[in-house]
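In response to reviewer comment 3 from the previous cycle, which asked for concrete evidence that the modeling workflow produces usable outputs, we include below a single protein chain processed end to end. The sequence was submitted unchanged, and the resulting structure tokens are shown without manual editing.
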Amino acid sequence: MSDTPTFAIVGAGLAGAKAAEALRVEGFDGHVVLLGAEPHRPYERPPLSKGYLQGSADRDTVFVHPQRWYAEHRIDLRVDTTVTAVDRRAHELVTGDGTRLRYDKLLLTTGASPRRLPVPGEDLAGVHYLRSLDDSDHLRAAFRPDIRVVIIGAGWIGLETAAAARAAGAEVTVLEHAALPLLRVLGSDMAKVFADLHTEHGVDLRCGVTVRDLRPATTDPSTVGAVLLADGSALDADVVVVGVGVAPNIDLARSCHLGVDDGILVNQHLVTSDDDVLAAGDVANAYHPLLCRQLRVEHWANALHQPAVAARTMLGRTSSYERLPYFFTDQYDLGMEYTGYTHPDSNDQLVVRGDLAAREFIAFWLHDGSVVAGMNVNVWDVTDPIRALIESGEPVDPARLGDLDVPLTDVAIPRTGQTGASSRSGRA
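The workflow returned the following structure tokens.
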């Protein structure tokens, strides 16, 4: 490094902002340059489909730091700046206007982008994706009573958007290719909880359907007017929201020949195939030492917590990211937290603790007798004991696990001669 080192962060979202903060907290006194392609200072994404979209949170609440924070902490924040290339040999970034910026350490927090809907009419006015603050602003303005909203995709974003549209009084139809919303993520029993929730709130939920194309309105051929399904039926639509997943933004990493595979490949210290380049947040496919696998997590908690590990690693200190995946959702009167990880193709045992019909319960997923994931629905202050059960790797008694009268601290069957981490080493 030079006498006054420069640490560059490409991607000015939550992960980038928290990395800049962590570098200062850890005592780094060199130059910190934070570059983002959007015109806004760093903001958090969960409110964009939750409180902010529903109108219950003010716009200022979405930002990670006040504007003055960046100057006060000597963070060189450059918005509206696209990085087009990384010259790893010269340790330089190239921006869209041709500027070259030298770095000593580089952190990539480039995030993810919505997958486009590959059908005719996808580019019509009135067709929306929800990823950015501007996207959320547009939908807030579009959602109002008597508007017909069709949402394509019943994942987390699609369902949260449906709840916001219904709260605004819009007529809402949700289209999903699978037999139930969130089926691959939660399995049929838990997926039905969310299907029932939305139908009870007036959503026309249609599963097992495929969109063929989007048709223009008869009054304005530049604007969407209907969604045509594969069976030939059509749904009138004033607003269409596409929520069919996201793809990690790996083009920059790939162009400079870093290892990529469903994201930027990093180890548990968040280091890429180049010791001076790291990655964190949605774009990072990181090795998880407890789960013994590479894992890319698209949720808020990784963007919040991984940057502290990245900052310490950049400073040459031993640090690894070992937090279990965590995410949450708020839809109507349902609040949920999910901790842990279960592979979609695993034949895990499901144990429910509480009242499933009243939507006040904890669902546990067991693999080889041990808890690997837990989802608490309208039950609070249980994340820590759920996390402890998963991290211990101890086998549990399913009957006691499902019994509300048995504390979660008393459900494990102590295992001898084997650690929790090694018990997971064979999981795909």
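The CA atoms of residues 267 and 273 lie 9 Å apart. We consider this sufficient to address the reviewer's concern, and the full set will be provided in the supplementary archive.
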